[in-house]
Amino acid sequence: MIDIERIRADFPLLDREVRDGKRLVYLDTGATSQKPRQVIEAERHFYEHTNAAVHRGAHAVAEEATEAYEAARTAVAEFVGAEFDELVWAKNATEGLNLVAYGFLNATLNARMGRSSAGEEQFVLAEGDEIVVTELEHHANLVPWQELAAKTGAQLRWIGVTDEGRLNPDDFDVIGEKTRILAFTHASNVTGAITPVEEIVRRAQAAGAFTVLDACQSAAHLPVDLHQLGVDFAAFSGHKMLAPTGIGALYGRRELLEALPPFLTGGSMVELVTMESTSFMPPPQRFEAGTQMVAQAAGFHAAVDYLSEVGMEAFAAHEQKLTQRLLDGIAEVPGVRVLGPQDAHDRLAVVAFEVEGVHPHDVGQVLDDAGIAVRVGHHCAQPVHRRLGVHASARASAGVHTTEAEIDAFIEGLHRVRSFFGAAEGRS
Questions:
Q1: Each residue's pLDDT tens digit in the chain (428 positions)?
Q2: What's the CATH superfamily of 4-27+311-427?
Q3: What is the CA radius of gyration of the chain?
Q4: Where do the H-state alpha helices sit in 80-214?
């Protein structure tokens, strides 16, 4: 059980008022999380005491900066059940996922030009190969694979979604002998549904396919052990898990990162450069060209320390209660449909919904007038919205600091939405 009042005291922004003095109710954690003081202070401390370029200077401050940078890598890797040299820093999960996709593209192009390095052949794609995604994907884990298929001649296929907003197990048979890559979300940012990773990975491994996991929502809300899950690659963003913006991470099995061609090239990722050719450093440095996000890494370190202190098991249990309270409360509001499972089983507190006859932006505006912050739009996931029969939705998403009282305030606000627009329709 978590001490919610103690936790809330750590988040400065939660004390503010909005819209003519209303206390902020922040239910947009699925988009970005608020930051505890510990994270804010860690980033500030770096700039005030340890600011220097990493892996470059021989002076004391540079050494301290490098130590902080790599200590953060170790801490974040341990948090998700990985080794430190299996974690590549990226500016966000989108960049991490693109890094993998472009690694496959570069391996394919290198093979066609006869310049492959050792181990690259396993990533080469040919016409007739298949890349499998799901209809639940955020655009960040869909568009890169569409582009990769178009540029290599591979075929894009997908697993569909049930009316409940979960992956359709009847479509799992799309994973077959031609499947080379299977990219899928751990938890949907629209329906909140948690993917049966074990079954998906088992089928992918039987087909000899690489697995790429979008762990943006899960790493922030559930205990995650990437080694135990058995995926080949996984990406997640710091800003969704209490860390600063501008930093994310890509996990890759060590032997795969050692063979995957780099995406970005330049300084800091090279061993030997001549005017004719360049050799690259081993991972993770081979994927970290240029000046890195060192202060943000220090903040990320503080964020995973904070989540570890709270305890991810306790956090997940707290959030499951909030999920059920959200779903039960919404069910009592006439004319509101939840997009996703109707109970908290294998589901996150990411609850997208439509209000009959009311545009999501209008829903968001009425809630905002009451001080309640939710997300509106298609949440960078147009296909699943289309599958569920809507163009957009409003979405409430809870975090480690969310209280039952805030959920109740949201439900009251949702009743107000229905009342306001119902009254308007009556006057017309």
A1: 899 999 999 999 999 999 999 999 999 999 999 999 999 999 999 999 999 999 988 899 999 999 999 999 999 999 999 999 999 999 999 999 999 999 999 999 999 999 998 999 999 999 999 999 999 999 999 999 999 999 999 999 999 999 999 999 999 999 999 999 999 999 999 999 999 999 999 999 999 999 999 999 999 999 999 999 999 999 999 999 999 999 999 999 999 999 999 999 999 999 999 999 999 999 999 999 999 999 999 999 999 999 999 999 999 999 999 999 999 999 999 999 999 999 999 999 999 999 999 999 999 999 999 999 999 999 999 999 999 999 999 999 999 999 999 999 999 999 999 888 874 444 33
A2: Aspartate Aminotransferase, domain 1 (3.90.1150.10)
A3: 23
A4: 93-113, 143-152, 197-207
Tell me if 242 sits within 8 A of 36, measured CB to CB: yes
Domain boundaries along the sequence of the chain:
4-27+311-427, 43-308
Please give the class, per CATH, of domain 43-308: alpha beta
- Catalytic residue, chosen from 24, 52, 380, 390, is 380
Helix (H) or strand (E) holding 134: strand 130-134
Is 216 a residue of the active site? no
pTM: 0.96
**Cα(326)–Cα(29) distance, rounded to whole angstroms?**
14
